[in-house]
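Ligand-bound model needed. P53.
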Amino acid sequence: MTDGIAMPKGFLWGGAVAAHQLEGGWQEGGKGVSIADVMTAGANGVARRVTDGIKQGEIYPNHWGIDFYHRYPEDIKLFAEMGMTCFRTSIAWTRIFPNGDETEPNEAGLKFYDDLFAECLKNGIQPVVTLSHFEMPYHLVKAYGGWRNRKLIDFFLRFAKVCFKRYRHQVKYWMTFNEINNQANWRDPHPLLQNSGLQLTDADDWESAMYQAAHYEMVASALAVKLGHEINPDFQIGAMIAMCPVYPLTAKPADVMMAERAMQTRYYYGDVQALGHYPAWLLNYWQRKGFDIDITTADKAILQAGTVDYVGFSYYMSFATKARADNPNYVYDEQHALVNNPYVEKSDWGWQIDPIGLRYSMNWMTDRWHKPLFIVENGFGAHDKVTADGHIHDDYRIKYFHDHILQMEKAVALDGVDLIGYTPWGHIDLISASTGEMAKRYGFIYVDQDDQGHGTLARSRKDSFYWFKQVIASNGADL
Ligand code: P53
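Prediction:
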């Protein structure tokens, strides 16, 4: 189709991954054990379990990923063939500081990313890097209790400083913490561990523990912004927010208020990182709950001084909610507050497909945070079939991308949203973060591997590969 609108010159087109979901090589080059290394395989509707260390007989899909650790030169050739001008990945913290609390970094780990970034640049692709993407050292969970401990700020900054210095000529765009706001769903232990390394018991107050951990992360993020700018003033250092806009199910005023509180609860992290301070509603809420969050005067100054340069975000789906008589204070409980939206369709994993929601979100974030945006994840997890002709005809994925990219282009061209670039998630098939499956595929590039890690690992081009190639070549005009 040719209904697209060309993006401004210099717009970045790429793809996005995270180290733990594709590298494999979990014990190579002196790498330590990360929280992803102790997560078992789940399935659609079956949560991943976390084992206390590595246990015999368990399946840990992140141990092998798609073996990018060894195959990246060939993979990057394919990325370049597709026309990608940027590549978002993360630096596995455990390759640089295997336990997280060392004072000296691991040279073999640093060398790996030297080589990886050089290979990208050689192919005309600039790396875009997330520092912490669901893969902190497991040792920091066990020995320090994760991000509930203020000491983590120093450990993270040491890691950030080493990376900023080492890659200051190779990387311009950075993000501090991936989807920092997933933990708004603190009743689910999965995001608490993924985001913050929290393993809580019945004796803990989970909600206040989350707010405390997120606070230390946001202080660490603000300090990293400041430090990064000292190391290279050209650095652009962003937040990374999982954007799932929450709609009111009806125009009933109470439903609208419920949706507003849901948005406030999910996105206050962005307020702190982009605006530099906590919103009043949350401070009032903490007071009513009797939460005594450790936020010093110095912390407040740091948050104000270290606001982000841009907001990176993921967008997959939208949510809907409604008020309930038994919830008069509009408390947003993500496990129970979400309702089916009858106006949109769902993926096989129940993710509601809503292209207009992307344009809506871009406008909402621009109005609220007044920062450039960067779509660093968007995509469609689906079951792909290799057909008799040996190809994957993923027209459903092309449709998803067509519809979303068109809305993105309207937000830029018609609404004036300042957008740095667009990197579809998992442009090469990889391990799913929520389920640990291989079967939930996002890629334009197919990887021959199943959920148990069996397969040739051969890479091949899906129909969507050729489609996205043409989108990039036309700078978004030819959808
Ligand atoms: P998977 C929840 C909701 C939206 C995005 O997700 C999410 C999550 C947490 O899983 O995660 C991001 O693989 C995340 C990636 C992840 C991707 O979305 O569960 O940044 O690491 O792989 C897709 O289908």
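Residues 12-473 form a domain with the TIM Barrel fold (CATH 3.20.20.80).
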